[in-house]
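Issue 218. Parser rejects a valid record. Input:
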Amino acid sequence: MTRNQKEVAQRIMAGNYRRIGPAGWGFLDKFLIFIKTIGFMECLDVSGEGYVRRMITIAKLLLTYQMKILMGISSMNQVPQLLFGDIGLLMMLGYTAEQIENGHRKRGKGKKKGPIHKDTLADALDRFLPEEMERILNGGVKLLAKKGFIKDKIYLMDATDLETTEKCNGAGRRTVIKKVLTRQKEIVEVLETTHGFKLHIIRSLDSRIVIAAKVTQIQESEKNWTLALVKQAVENIGPGKIQLLLIDRGYLDGLTLWTLKYTHGIDWVIPARTDMAVTKDARGLREATDATRIFRDERKDLKVVGLKGLMSYDQYGDDAHQLKDVNARDFKANPINAVMVTRWDGKDYPPAKEKVFLTSLPVSKPLGILDKYDLRSLIENTAFRELKQGWLINKIPKKTERAVTAHAILTLCMYNFTNAYRTDLGQELTERGIRRFRMQTFHQTYAKVMIMTDEYFGIFDLEEFAILLGKPPKDFRPWSDVDPEAFKKEHGIS
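Output the parser choked on:
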């Protein structure tokens, strides 16, 4: 169908039009053009399992689901009304008028609502292998990197839980001891069990692009996936691009940290655990005065100490180092740097309670190290929180491992391309979440409808539509940009 405002206007006045529906978001047409132009549609060309007849292309199926994500639709039951009810959007996705009216399949009872059944969309997520979903994300990141959207030097690495119920097929199970306060105000230890999965990501600091991701069972240790994620990230954006990695404590592992520095050339900062020997070693040097190895720095309510060349992290080394006997006389540990915080927010940490961070960076200016690591908190505020609250990444439509993975990865794709889209258009939306962005663009098509005739369609404001019907409102909205007289003159209405 071709858009022809004047021809459709004449047919509306003659009462000769076929269908009316909402016009869709104002930014979605440009957004879809953006992802098609950049080449993302080719990334969606995966095989899937069980799609022998391919009544609908897999790329279109996946893109339809991604529009559900982008529109913030939390329940599959809302899909027929909110997604399939948007004729303009469905046409932009590539559905024909016949498909929108009658669907892709003739089977089934009852009145059809949309080109496909809502359950077909949910069931589709269970047809794709996790590796296929990861290829979609990785392909999209490579495109963004190639087009110059990812120019960061600092990257953040962390994981978050995607909780499900125990009935979810393939979900992991994690049981931990938790201290709780009873009604008698006694602290007791109880076992707490959580079912679900864990989402690991590496995200760029400024461009806010997730450059690598992995979904694992919830009980799996983060450190098992560090190098695999970094390797994939380097493959996606190119070698030498990641200069500094700010890492959550869960990824702490001596071999991993050594490999990051001496194999990949990536510097890092990571918190030390309280029970580590290197932590105790650092705390023991709180009052030490060695100008060649100990560097003190402070400002306002903050005091830190840089510690160079600590020799008490026995596991820090390559594969051969891991095989050595740490109790042997000839064993020699590798030096590692640390930054210790002795005062934070105006409060002094007592001895043996100081916060210790390990790093491969020089520590002669320890405040700079701490400032860098403080940026890692952004992954909680502008990634995980936004993904859960704004993008509904934890609202899984089907209780299977594949569906969880597919939903999470496709959500990350939309998260990435939305951030890239904002930057490309020069909009100052970097610090705004998807909920605010959705509300900000909603007004563009808030009061518009799409009218379909046999071969043409037109998009009109509701007040324009009322004029064409010969029943204009007595009062036009104060914020409306409709000029009744100009509209009448343009369409030959006396």
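Fixed in the parser; the record now loads. The longest strand covers residues 187-204.
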